[in-house]
Amino acid sequence: MTDDGGARQIALYWFEKADQSLDSARDELNAGRKSFAMNRCYYAAFYAASAVLVNRGERFSKHTGVRAAVHKRLVKTGDLSVDNGKLYDRLFHDRQEGDYVEFVQFEEAHVGTCIEQCNALTSALRQIFDADDTRR
Predict the structure, then answer these.
(1) Apex 122 CA angle, 80 and 74, nearest 5
(2) Fewer Cβ close by (within 10 Å): the C or N end of the chain?
(3) pLDDT tens, position by position, for the chain (136 residues)?
(4) What is the DSSP string of the chain?
(5) What is d(CA 32, CA 134) in angstroms, rounded to the nearest whole number?
(6) For the whole model, what pTM was predicted?
């Protein structure tokens, strides 16, 4: 990526994937596949955070890099609330458990709450992106 226009296009791509992941999370929950819904919910947050970070010129090859940057570059600076930082961590943890720990079961109400909170998180990240755009 060599210019702000390229970064912006990549960010828009990641936001589109975030929207699709949230839609998929809802579909998976409606089908009773709660573990898959948690996976898609986390990825919605991951893609939206990646969008903001890439728009700011930062790219990471690992999920832990994005997670650390969410806290260092967004929460610590006050751009993203501490509660949203904690939500990102919880989604990361739940996705890890759902994907890699045997016999993990999520309650439907928990997954539904996570999806709605993730929707608010991705909206907050989009607002940060929009604010960054207006400053340019």
Answers:
(1) 25
(2) C
(3) 345 679 999 999 999 999 999 999 999 999 999 999 999 999 999 999 999 999 999 999 899 999 999 999 999 999 999 999 999 999 999 999 999 999 999 999 999 999 999 999 999 999 999 999 888 7
(4) --SHHHHHHHHHHHHHHHHHHHHHHHHHHHTT-HHHHHHHHHHHHHHHHHHHHHHTT---SSHHHHHHHIIIIIITTTSS-HHHHHHHHHHHHHHHHHHHSTT----HHHHHHHHHHHHHHHHHHHHHHHHHHHH-
(5) 41
(6) 0.94
Token pair for 16: 């589109």
Amino acid in the structure at residue 83? D
Name the one residue in this structure whose structure tokens are 């907050």. Answer: 124
